[in-house]
Each structure stands twice: as structure tokens, then as C-alpha cells.
Amino acid sequence: MLELAILGYLHERPLHGYELRKRVAALTGHVRPIADGTLYPAIKRMETAGWLTRETQAGAAAAPRHMLHLSSAGERELLRRLREPGELDISDENRWFVLLAFLRALGDPEAQAAVLRRRLAFLEQPSSFFYEDGRPVRAEDVEDPFRQGILAIARATGEAEFRWLRAMLAKLEDRQP
Q1: Is the Cβ–Cβ distance between 109 and 172 less than 8 Å?
Q2: Are 16 and 66 in contact (CB under 8 A)?
Q3: Terminal alpha carbon distance of the chain
Q4: Residue 100 lies in a domain
Q5: How many distinct structural domains can be found in the chain?
Q6: Any residues with CB less than 8 A from the CB of 114 and at least 6 apart, and which?
Q7: Are 36 and 110 in contact (CB under 8 A)?
């Protein structure tokens, strides 16, 4: 998730490490805070892999700053991750949001639609936060008002996502030649 966010933001434009950290934190920080001890080692690994390049710029009044750029290998890696997301990227809501934040970078409506269809298929499977005898429990069948709340919120969110996915798929499929 972190690497995808880094690749995605650098695809949009080169950034200084501090600015990159702010953007990644804004996207994921409410769920998974981004510490320097997480971000900078990831940047270093990605630089070693050849996905990023670093340009040193003179600082205004302090030490030199490093501008990070996405390399052509990084571009290919971003597009691969967007085109072929892992199962967790489809099923985990937070990872899904990171993927969705950069899906436009694919530029291919059919490839974008294929990813959205995978998410839709995942959401169409019966599921719940709670199970009884191996079956998902519905909000109507739960006495605990707090668990009812969880299930009601999840249902409303799911219904909104279904509507959006179906509308977006229709729009993408209309653009096909």
C-alpha cells in the first residue's frame, strides 16, 4: 500500500520527501500513520530497485533537499500494480482506496473496468463482520446495538459503493470502441 501510494504520487509529479510524506499521510494516515521510519526506508528500497531517482537541490536556508522522481521502471511497476492488483488490494478497504486513488494512471478504460469488476465481484460475495454457524449475520438478527451499528454502517457504505461501481463501469464500458 505504501509503495503504491509513493509510486502514484510521484507519477503525478516529482516531490520532496516531506511533501510526499504529507500526501501519503493524508491518504492513509487516518488508518495507518506514516512515520519517517517507515517512509524513508521504503523510498530507499524503491530507489535501489530503480523505481525512483533522487535529485539534490540546494535548500533555501538549510541542508540540501532531495527531489524524488519516478523512473521509467517505476512507471512500469505502478502500471503493473494497478493492472494486476493483489487480492488484498481488492478486498481490504484501505488498500482499495489507495489503488482507486491512482487507477486513472492506467489510462485504459478496459483495464480500469477489469479492476472495478474484480472489486464488484468481491463485494457481491455474502459477508459480515460477525458469523454464526458459518453464515454471515445480518444487522436485523443482532441484539447488540453497537454491532447493529457496525452492520448498518457497513451496509450503507456497501450500497453506496455498489452504486458508484456500477455507474463507473457503465461509463467506462460506454467509452469502449
Answers
A1: yes
A2: yes
A3: 33
A4: no
A5: 2
A6: 83
A7: no
For 3, the domain range is: 1-84
Q: What is the pTM of this model?
A: 0.85
* SS3 label, residue 50: coil
Tell me which amino acid residue 165 is: L
Dihedrals phi, psi of 55, to nearest 5 degrees: -120, 125
pLDDT, tens digit only, all 177 positions of the chain = 899 999 999 999 999 988 998 899 888 866 666 776 888 899 999 999 999 999 988 766 677 788 999 999 999 999 999 999 999 999 999 999 999 999 999 999 999 999 999 999 999 987 777 888 888 777 778 888 998 888 888 889 999 999 999 999 999 988 655
Alpha-carbon Rg for the chain in angstroms: 20
Place of cell 448498518: 152
Any domain includes 160: yes
